[in-house]
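Now for one specimen:
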Amino acid sequence: MAIEYEALAAGLACFAYLVFSVVVKGGFWRQNWTNKDGRWVSQAEGPVFYVLMVLLFGALGVVLTLEGVGVL
């Protein structure tokens, strides 16, 4: 069973960002596409955005980590 380090690193980075965003910052970074500004969006400010980001980074973290260790 070979380990794919790129996929494993990406999966762990997704988990790290998910934990950092939810536990430390309490929201996710949302880039403003009209200029270079952005802000942290909490669950109270954007509940749909917050849930979608949790699902996205949770699913990516699981899939990439499993692919990295050779399960998928």
